[in-house]
Write a structure and sequence with these properties.
Elements: H1 4-13, E1 17-23, E2 29-35, E3 39-41, E4 45-51, H2 55-62, E5 65-72, E6 77-88, H3 91-97, E7 115-129, E8 132-137
Antiparallel strand pairs: 1-2, 1-5, 3-4, 4-7, 5-6, 6-7, 7-8
Length: 139
């Protein structure tokens, strides 16, 4: 892959769904479809919204290991990112990715105690395209 960040970034930006995996108490992976990240910094750091009370939030607090996956169904391509998740509840992080209409999920607005931000930080990835896979380092 010539320009890893550009190729992967373009794939990610075109997806409306991200698949986020956490690890449960028994050590098994748990995967959930989520809204696409609200913000990304290159292909290393991603910010997603979720509920503070969510099962996944508790799992990330107990074990920050995570996987973030994006799939381009049209061209049968995908990218898996391995990394860690931090649960952010500070006002600055919450305001950074808040969008109009989020009150549908968080009725009390940007200060809703059940609203938090997940910051995923990748260290490695694997890109699949044209029947081939390629592992790459990040950061």
């Amino acid at each position: 892959m010539r320009d890893c960040e550009k190729t992967i970034g373009n794939l990610i930006d075109k997806q409306g769904t991200a698949f986020l995996s956490s690890v449960d108490e028994a050590g098994f992976p748990n995967t959930k479809a989520m809204l696409a990240p609200r913000k990304r910094e290159g292909i290393q750091t991603f910010y997603l919204t979720t509920n503070t009370s969510a099962m996944r939030t508790a799992q990330f607090r107990a074990n920050p290991k995570a996987c973030l996956y994006f799939c381009d169904k049209r061209f049968f391509r995908g990218v898996m990112l391995l990394g860690t998740v931090e649960v952010l509840e500070d006002q600055e992080s919450k305001e950074m990715i808040w969008q109009e209409g989020d009150t549908m999920y968080y009725p009390e607005g940007v200060t809703d105690p059940d609203y938090c931000v997940l910051r995923f930080t990748a260290f490695e990835g694997r890109f699949y395209s044209k029947f081939k896979s390629e592992t790459f380092s990040i950061g």
